[in-house]
Structures
1.
Amino acid sequence: MAGPLQGVTVVDFTEIIAGPLAGRLLAEMGADVIKVEPPWGEPWRASQKFSPTESRGFMVYNRGKRSLPLDLTKPDAQEVLRRLIPKVDVTLANFRPDVAAKLGVDYPTLRQLNPQLIYCEITAYGREGPDAHRPGYDMILQAMSGLMASETKIENGIPQQIWSSPLIDTTSGFSLAWCVCGALYARERTGQGQKIETSLLGSALALLGSRFLHVENLDRDMRLRALEDIAAKRASSAPYDELLAASPGSRRQRHHANVYYRIYMTKDGPIGVGCLSDPLRRRLLETLDLTDPALESGWDPNTPEAQENTLRLQDAAEKLFRAKTSADWLSLLEQRGIPAGPVRFVEELFDDPQIRANGLVTEVEHRDAGKVKMIGPLAQFSETPMVADSPSPALGEHTGEILGALGYSEEEIQRLKRDRVVE
């Protein structure tokens, strides 16, 4: 059985992470995804590469695609597009507006070739507004969206990016794939193609969750005071930690959550404990034989006494957790129905029985690297199963078969290769 998007053809013009991830997700759903990139390859191929044409990052975000290197600045390449675009359902793009038009891959141009086309583009800041023309990457959007300040990590007086994951790029890739599925469904009902726009900025704001929420009656005065305070501190060249303290939304809250929802060191390593409801918190207190007046009605968490209580409770809990091994604590917490888990390293996950049981790691055979283990499909479809059994493509690996399907003869394909129109 094939995936839910079998029969859908996608041309992926995107580079780096967000757009390519969207293409990979669609490929896992069964779509035929053709990656169109320059004859020298997209930039991510050369970022810490370990084979002639690929890097680890490229392998992760381009699994399951076919490669068609195409020099869009040449007239013969435009002819390839004129043959290709009428046969596809979706295009993914992340060009600047002026670049897309110059290369002939903007929406008005491609729509003329295929009125039913679903054209999806992702930008840094959106197509409107004063920043629309600016380039942007994950780290820059972490800074500009408030996400970095909300994380409150500081080193040597400088705010630190969230570097363990390109979380904005990743969220944007999922958002783009989600939009494609919605547009395909709409086209089934109406027969009409359309243009979809999404942005890194929008994804960053979505990741802020309840932090990006303004309740007028509750927040207006506090926000105005904070804006005045931040502006004054900036004008006086105040250090960043003072700026951070001026922002109520970026302060670490001092309440019972830092006892009940945190990482504890045990006798032999760290574990995470998460209690986000009063019943769970009370159950943890019973397990530890501790009491917390903060759970009683009428308690004011903003008094000095409250902060002293939090520190006392935190110290007591830390000492108790250090007295037993992680295995002992995890067994006990599971018996009590308290959410908990060990802090693991990525190297440990490939053989983890829970991950393997749910198909979250898959194995593919790569032409250069051999056997490769990587993330498997994130969902299971009972009737149209998703697959992730083919690796990322070598540069130009599928040029001949793609052009041949468009009616090009072998002689014509070789001429295009000699002229560096394709690779």
2.
Amino acid sequence: MTTARAATLVGPERLEIREYPIPEVAPDGALMRIGLGGVCGTDVKYYRGRIDMPYPVILGHEIFGRIERLGSEAARIHGVAEGDRVVLKGSRGCGHCRDCRAGAPRFCPRRTAYGSRTSAADPPHLFGGLADYLYVNPDAMLFKVGDGLSDEAAVLCGSVMANGYQWAVLHGGATFGDTVLIQGPGQQGLACTWAARCAGAARVLVSGAAADADRLALCRAWGADAVIDADADDVVEAVADFTGGAMADVVVDVSGSPDALASSVAALRRRGTLVLAGLTGGGRRVPVEIDALVWNEIRLQGAFTAGSTALEATMALVEATGFDVASMVSHTFGLDDTELCIRAVGGEIDGMYPVKAVIRP
């Protein structure tokens, strides 16, 4: 094969399946054959033009595959061999900027940003996971996948599941005896539900809209003690009822809904922690009752993507426990149906609202 197909965003709501030449592999590079690419709500925002992009961009930042070709230096850099199953999660960054030196290369402005902020305009082009192949730059972070993880489990551990651990446990500090409220029962909410339960939370509550009934039911199966229909019930009152007025120790808001913020703040106990991990997109401004944060000494934590610590811990725990992570995947699409997949994830297709969708090229 001399060319690779890739789902390329060339402008807002303009997605094309383009062909690119398969590049020669440099000594410090590698070529990955994509096995699965995950699609999440951020891809919907990219597609709709709510987040600036350096068009053209190959979408897909949740990436699992197998090493097809490997440069001699790349084997040393990544510690992998041809044929290995791997997850690609972000990049090491430049190693010299303030964020890299502080151990947070995911914020490095010079890193290779797969599926988002690295353009496909110039060779080697293939910098997104919704494609047949992907080019592995020397700054990419590869993680070998154990035989105990299915393809679906691997791509989820490398993305949404690691986020759940990062946000609920590392950022939120959820631990033994806590009450954790998760606002939003989608894929990220499911992962946070699992992570909070694994961390020993005494109560895990999940809120969602009436349209989320199937997702809320899955949250119960994944460890939620109770679910709240936010269209029918007051979320704050429900949390008060479940806790006897003690309220939540940790709230993780992955809803991306500006309307949920007020209840996220009000549902916290004094000196509780609010983790905001849902993107609204488009630079929307949301009013916040600052006095409530001040008087109650609320800790407010923004949350971006997971780091390598969360990913490695998540992969090890899922493999050791055999937890059925793949039950999250409700829809699998082919590469030619990428636009349909993204629109379905965005709730635009009647009768098709995936909990988690993946692309198998």
3.
Amino acid sequence: MTGREEALAAASVIRERVAAAGYQHLDAMPVAGIVLGSGLGGLAARVAHAARIPYAHIPGFAPSTVHGHAGELLVGELAGRPVVLQAGRFHLYEGHDAATAAFPVRVMHALGVRTLVVSNAAGGVRRTFRPGDLMVIADHINLMFRNPLTGPLEKGDERFPDMSDPYDPALRRLLHAIAASQGLALQEGVYAGLLGPTYETPSEVRMLEKMGADAVGMSTVPEVTVARALGMRVAGISCITNPAAGISHTPLHHGEVLKTSARVAKEFEGLVEAFVAQLR
């Protein structure tokens, strides 16, 4: 089960492990929960005084099986402010249902998180994108055909959450302002979430382009859906690791995704750290 009661139980275990490690970060409400996408796990090294909890020690958390996902939850300080950071997510293509993929967001909410920062590696559908571009997510298209809210209503959830602005406009403006101050070119666009694990065919990419997608990946949508049902604010960043199939004639592979993510990691990390520093 991956509902509210299970999230509260998991949060209790996390609090105990953080206290046992001698840290006090959960005495204050975390300013953000951060979900790291493929190849973007380097931000974890910037979390100071971190209590690192392997997923195997957290009830309801699944193993992380994808290369580039560490599989641990960090509780510590980023830019001197308390955060909860998920280094490695759960994907539907690994065999998980949508509720399991989004369960860590419920746990973060139970720990006091009210602002969620999601990141991912994505293929570029917009033809002007180049590998290494960072894109603020303005909206998403759920083509996973799964919804983590299906089933009985969880206490505290909105039954019919408003998704007219799933990615908070004020947080998007803040990301752009920080990027400008850092001299970082930041794109903005629509993310399409597909089930995977295959990369898209050229015909599918042409379909996505006609539907208004700017980037495509295999994650993020379940977490954002649950966050909105819980009333959390959300900011999202995609790292464009490659042109999608048909736009580039180069074969796609996960190693290239990780390579490109690593190349822009410092820019991504600096952006998110400054963002956390300015959160209100």
4.
Amino acid sequence: MVHLLRKGDHIVAGDDLYGGTCRLFEKVFAKWGLAVSYADVDDPASFAKSMRPNTRLIWVETPTNPLLKIVDIRRLAALAKRSGALLAVDNTFATPFFQRPLELGADLVVHSTTKYLAGHSDLIGGAVVCDRKRVYERLKFHQNAAGAVPGPWDSWLVLRGIKTLAVRMRQHEDNALCAALYLRWHPKVSRVYYPGLPDHVGSSLARKQMTGFGGMLSLELKGGRRAAERFFSRLKVFCLAESLGGVESLACYPALMTHGSLSKEERLKRGIGEGLVRLSVGIEDREDLLEDLAGALG
């Protein structure tokens, strides 16, 4: 999608996003002459302040990774339109079942099909969705010229997964909400990040632009890295893994895994502390998952 841009163009990205995306912006695309600025997703006005005359793309995740922040898609769509830029939304966490950014004004929607769309952790793929013919034709030309075409087996696996997406997402959300409610009051947990909780700062906005809250949540453990290591070592149902969105429950340590490419100072600046744990809550029996979390927390 960045291939829609030209040398000298500028990108405004939300400051809470997958560490690999930051790595692409700063280590790969910068060599092509593209510049990136990060806007505070907690302050919608910061996106407008970050815009430049040569800004051609606004890139956000919502909910964000790993702090599950909610970004106002309609507001950013209006800003992009006024500025002559495109708005791209990474919708991997929410999926089309819970959120449809194109209907909220976004120009492009990105999915890691590896995750919820496929749903079984058995392929690697991605998708870009748009409803503007000119943009589509430019993307299709690049795909044809560069050869970014998924294999037939991977495509079949994604189509297979989509057939059960609705059923799976309901169960993911149900289990995640139960886990969030349990962890919210646990004495060894200082904070839980889940937009389905009423005290989540983005809960009201999430209810306006989403039809559900998904299966991802993060928690801050008291005790930092030592507490996190004890937590991971005691898990039996949740597996320690960097991926997400499959039917099985996974636990991730952002400081060393998804955001390990960022410096410690940059991680702390973005709110990614050493006690932060990200959970991809699967579709297993709810009581098994709660028992596993209880045992891991001691």
